[in-house]
Each structure stands twice: as C-alpha cells, then as structure tokens.
Amino acid sequence: MTDLSRREFLGALGMAPVAGGLLTIAGSATGAPAAATAGDRMQAQARESARLRYFPNLILRTQDDKEVRFYDDLIKGKIVTINFFYAKCEDVCPIVTSNLVKVQELLGDQVGRQVFMYSFSLKPAEDTPRAMKEYAEMHGVKPGWTFLTGKPEDLELLRRKLGFTTPDLRADKDVTNHTGNIRYGNEPFMLWGATPGMARPEWIAESIEWMIHPDAIRLPHQHPEARPDGPQPQHKHPAG
Q: What is residue 111's DSSP assignment?
C-alpha cells in the first residue's frame, strides 16, 4: 500500500497552492461588481485549466440512488475529502472508514455545510447504491458524507485523474493499493493535500480544518502533546 506526500500529490495534479480568496469578485460601495484584476483572471484561468485536466464531469450515482456530476455537483466551489473504497473489503477499507467516522465527529456540523466528504467505489459493478447505503449505515456515517458509484470505466478514469495510482503496473491492478490514502482540498483556492487514511483522526481533522481556516493551525480541542507518532498529514499555507 502506498502513501503519497502532499508534494508528490501536488506534482501529480500539476497544481500549486494559490494565494488569495475565492474567485467571486467583491462589489464596490455602490453595489456594482468590481472589475476583475489581472490576478483574478490568471487565477480563473488556472482553475479552469485544473478542472479540464483533473476533474472530469462524470455522471455518478450516490448511495441514495441520486444522479450527480463529479465537478458541477461535488467539487466545484467546495472544500472536500476524497477516498476510494469498496463495500466487500476485508482489508484496509473498513479501518479507514472507521477512522473517517471519527474525523467526521471531530468536524461536527461543518460536514455537509463547509466540508463535503466523498468515498468513490473501486468496484462499481458490485457496489450498488443499496450496497453502499448499507455499508454507510453499518459504519455509522452521518449526513455530509456521500458514497458514489457509476460506470466502471468512469470510476477508473476518476481514480487515475485524481492520482490514486502507483507506477508499478502489477500493483496498480490491485485495488487494495488505492484504499489507504485520503485527498483533501479547497477547489476555489486550488489547494490540495494528502494524508494516510490511518493517521490519527485528530490530525486528519486538523488538516481539513486548515482548508477552511488557513490561519487556524489547530482545532480547539487539540494540544501540542497530542502529536501522533505515525506519519503526518502534509499541508502548506496557500501564501507559503
């Protein structure tokens, strides 16, 4: 099972952190929209380039049997977490899912409002909406976390576009090698990172919280002595 550092992930995606806020243009004192600056235009162009290259607008189906589009409905304008799983997994999938349930609890009501969690099937032919819903209920998943399936070729394309791959072709065919990592990102900022799915939930939650509030390094309940001994999430301030 391979872990991907933030630097490797950003290199795979070809996206560097971008300083600045969302791409909405603030209004003037009179209420008229301000003119876009050269920086605004460059950021918009970079964001569109990233969308075209890495975020295919595939049609997927949720655990509630609802049809959604990957970019328009799931990613655009959002802070997200992304991981891959399959329901009939006896390896690392249930461990990572249980860990993410703890992360969801730590983030509280931010999930579904400011942060959206997504798990994509590695075996979409088997993972029907009903199977995914049962899997989510079994693990105590709460609203704001969506499980998704679709056409096998579409999920395979998505896996590759998002960098859940390994250069060893034989290892890449083993789906269990793609269940151990989590990507998290702020799409408007074009800021992305990665963390092992079995890292301490407090540190995964902090990394995601940092995407919401880049200046807030720790969640209120965390303390310096809580640092884990295992591998750490990789992240960087967008202005750094």
A: B
For residue 142, what are its two tokens? 């709460």
Displacement of CA 230 from its chain's centroid (Å): 21
CB 150 within 8 A of CB 123: no
DSSP annotation of 17 reads: -
* Cβ neighbour number for residue 170 with a 10 Å cutoff: 8
DSSP string, 119-130: EEES-TTT--HH
Rounded to the nearest 10°, the torsion over CA 90, 95, 98, 104 is -130
**Burial track 74-113 (b if 16+ CB lie within 10 A, e otherwise):** bbbeebbbbbbbbbebeebbbebbebbbebbebbeebbee
Does 87 score more than 80 pLDDT? yes
In 3-state terms, what secondary structure has residue 12?
Answer: helix
Query: Which residues have CB under 8 Å from 183's CB, separation 6+?
Result: 9, 81, 82, 83, 162, 163, 164, 192, 193, 194
pLDDT level of residue 230 (50, 70, 90 thresholds):
very low
Distance of CA 88 to the CA centre of its chain: 22
* Cβ atoms 227, 4 nearer than 8 A: no
The pTM is what?
0.75
